[in-house]
Design goal:
With 290 residues, this protein is mostly helical. The chain has one domain. Helix content is 80%, strand content 1%. It is built from 14 helices and 2 strands, in the order ααβααααααβαααααα. The chain has a two-stranded antiparallel sheet with strand order 1-2. Helix 1 runs parallel beside helix 13, helix 6 packs antiparallel against helix 14 and helix 9 packs across helix 11. The longest helix has 27 residues. It is globular. The chain starts with a helix and ends with a helix.
């Protein structure tokens, strides 16, 4: 069950990334982040009522977990949407392969989940795969593929966002374990509510006319919020059913979908080498959790 839920979330990641890039042509990253955080909450609460039979009871540990996740998500969400707005999704998507690497390390350190010897090979493959993303640039110099990739500040933004997202599942899983009955969707609703509150000052300070941006794109916001609610349900339920490393590795299958969508809808180039790099990196993530 956890595998299919994780795969559903992977599909949502790829579709959501493509729709977001389209919307970000006329919307600020902070407005998109705040709008989706706000609009997703009602759908998540409805799913909670339908699946948990009511609002679960919580304790202070739950709110600690939700608060920690929401605070970190402010930075991760803004960084990721800024990157998506300005960089090709086919080069950004494979960078998400670093996320399970970070997650496995954090889960090992803080949750006691084992990191076995095969993980070393997985780490190497993730690094090698990132090299293959710009393998054609090797004709200039041996380390040129790395310098081209990480010399792009938006790639660095996305890498930092994925580093942060490697930490947030620890807070989120902690929150889930402190709901009775256990409800990942309710934890997501609480987290989205706090995320929206944290983003309000950012929007006020950085966007002159946020409601104008909202009015022009409200249909896309509604679509993304519905898809986001379903995605949250799938992801948080998977978190509660299986090892974090397994779940997040399946999430990375979204990379293949996203690269294909980037070529199909945005006519992005160098797709073959990016697919090659992505496949190597995904192989690394699979080995990482074996």
């Amino acid at each position: 069950m956890w595998f299919w839920l994780s795969l559903l979330f992977a599909i949502w990641i790829s579709v959501g990334m493509i729709i977001s890039k389209h919307v970000l042509r006329g919307v600020s990253p902070s407005v998109l982040s705040a709008a989706l955080a706000f609009l997703t909450v009602p759908f998540l609460l409805l799913i909670t009522l339908a699946t948990a039979g009511g609002i679960p009871s919580t304790d202070w540990v739950f709110w600690f977990g939700v608060l920690g996740s929401a605070f970190l998500n402010v930075f991760a969400t803004l960084l990721s949407y800024t990157a998506i707005k300005h960089a090709p999704v086919s080069i950004l998507a494979p960078i998400a392969s670093f996320n399970p690497l970070f997650t496995a390390l954090f889960a090992f350190a803080f949750l006691g989940e084992n990191l076995k010897l095969a993980g070393v090979i997985g780490i190497v493959l993730i690094v090698v795969g990132s090299y293959f993303l710009n393998i054609k640039d090797i004709k200039h110099s041996l380390f040129r593929p790395f310098s081209v990739l990480f010399g792009n500040r938006f790639v660095r933004f996305f890498l930092l966002a994925n580093f942060i997202w490697a930490i947030t599942p620890i807070f989120e899983k902690t929150a889930i374990l402190h709901t009775v009955p256990q409800s990942g969707v309710f934890a997501a609703a609480a987290g989205s509510s706090l995320l929206f509150l944290f983003l309000i000052p950012v929007v006020k300070k950085g966007v002159p006319k946020p409601f104008l941006e909202l009015g022009r794109n409200w249909k896309w916001f509604i679509l993304l919020s519905i898809l986001g609610a379903v995605g949250y349900w799938a992801a948080f339920t998977a978190y509660s059913l299986a090892n974090l490393g397994y779940v997040t590795s399946v999430f990375r299958l979204s990379i293949i979908f996203t690269i294909f969508w980037g070529w199909l809808f945005f006519k992005e180039e160098r797709i073959k080498e990016r697919l090659l790099g992505a496949i190597v990196m995904i192989t690394g993530t699979i080995l990482l959790v074996l």
